[in-house]
Amino acid sequence: MKEKIYVHVADDHKILIEGIIAVINTDKDIEIEGYSLTGKEVIDWSKEKTADILILDINMPIFDGIDVLKFFQSNKTDQKVIILSSYDDVNLVKQMLNLGAKGFLSKNSAGEHIVKAIKAVAAGEQYFSDDIQNNLFKLYTGQKVAEGERPESTIAHSLTERELEVLKLIAKENSTSEISGILNISTNTVETYRKSLLKKTKVKNAVGLAMYAVKNNII
Amino acid sequence: MKEKIYVHVADDHKILIEGIIAVINTDKDIEIEGYSLTGKEVIDWSKEKTADILILDINMPIFDGIDVLKFFQSNKTDQKVIILSSYDDVNLVKQMLNLGAKGFLSKNSAGEHIVKAIKAVAAGEQYFSDDIQNNLFKLYTGQKVAEGERPESTIAHSLTERELEVLKLIAKENSTSEISGILNISTNTVETYRKSLLKKTKVKNAVGLAMYAVKNNII
DNA sequence: TTTGATATCACCGAAAACCGTTAGATGAAA
DNA sequence: TTTCATCTAACGGTTTTCGGTGATATCAAA
């Protein structure tokens, strides 16, 4: 016979929380312990209470999901966390995993995956929704993207790999010197990429680059 | 005896759609007709089918909610629409109303409001979630707002009208001097707004502001 | 083997962004 | 009436971005 799995949900959108609760309630083995609307609430909650699984939105005001994970890590809080994100960026997934997350759900994935993810992570496994799994697989195996899936992304492919890396970092608010630190290259080189990006994408400035990245699903 | 109310849901996050469906299904009078994951799907859907109520996320890829409303307006499609938004900007609400929306739900509001909104709009009324109602009252009538519970999260990102204007122009790649020209104010003033925006949104630079605008559908 | 694409780096100057602080004018709210 | 939010503006200084114009190394393809 099974023990119930207790779940805490954290997201700044109450509607989404209630939706997740509704979906979870369809399963007999899982119970909602409570919810939080901000990262601060999550941290406060974790000091007193606990749950088997924490479903955590990365995009929250005040303290975001990353802050919460960092808090857990530095306080050695052993909390199994499933990340909920609207973006399926592989680098983000990697960062989350390094911060101790056990599962990663894209908001684009169907609700049924929540239940699967909860049960998998509660059982000590990892769980990723399909789209993220694909991306991870491609990244680690160096596989090329199937030709039929992404029609528009070929336009963005006039950008080189390195340019794309720089572009992503620009879109994440990094300055030239920060990027140079992250990629271990000279600031001069980063500036060269910036100029190249501006020329290729025909936008005026870093904001234009960020918007380009958004529109072309690069982020 | 009552007729059932048929609802179509459009949002790019499937989890949120399923959540909304789960919430709606608790009510006997309301039935889900179907859902769409992009604005394009909504437009295609509207050409063939119909529902009493369309719940429409403004923040969708390819065609966003505004595009859908514009399509309805230019095609004289008589579709009652309830807008679902993560941002409660009053200007946005005004724009939506002018485009024919009948209700406006902030994603910060509780799920129960969905049912209320559907019934109100189906009955020919308008509906706004509490936080938006407060803002509207302030703007139009200057009436005193009831002292209900208001979480800090909504107050956190309350940008002024002028700040929103500047933010939009920044997100459109305009420089400070260009914005000063467009708004007919001094460059110094524009810089003051930039600083204020950076402080309020807690982002590092103009790129962060642009991303904030995207995420909160201010653009 | 030459060409082309990519990744790397450098220097200069101009423009823009960012930081901190201050402050007047206005109109609404307490 | 006084306080508060908002809009407006200014000043001085630092950092970052942008534009232009180079160069070197590597690797793969023609």
Automatic annotation (TrEMBL), chains A, B:
Q: 4-aspartylphosphate (modified residue): where?
A: 57
Q: In the record, which residues are listed under signal peptide? A: none
Q: Which CDD domains match?
A: LuxR_C_like, REC_NarL-like
Q: Which UniProt keywords apply?
A: DNA-binding, Phosphoprotein, Transcription, Transcription regulation
Asked if Repeat is a keyword of the record, the answer is no
What Pfam families would the database entry show? GerE (PF00196), Response_reg (PF00072)
Gene3D superfamilies for this protein: 3.40.50.2300
InterPro entries the record matches: CheY-like_superfamily (IPR011006), NreC/VraR/RcsB-like_REC (IPR058245), Sig_transdc_resp-reg_C-effctor (IPR016032), Sig_transdc_resp-reg_receiver (IPR001789), Tscrpt_reg_LuxR_C (IPR000792), WalR-like (IPR039420)
Cite the PROSITE patterns for this sequence. HTH_LUXR_2, RESPONSE_REGULATORY
UniProt domain HTH luxR-type: residue ranges = 152-217
Question: Residue limits of the Response regulatory domain?
Answer: 6-122
Q: Which PANTHER family match?
A: NITRATE_NITRITE RESPONSE REGULATOR PROTEIN NARP, TWO-COMPONENT RESPONSE REGULATOR
* The protein's name: Response regulator transcription factor
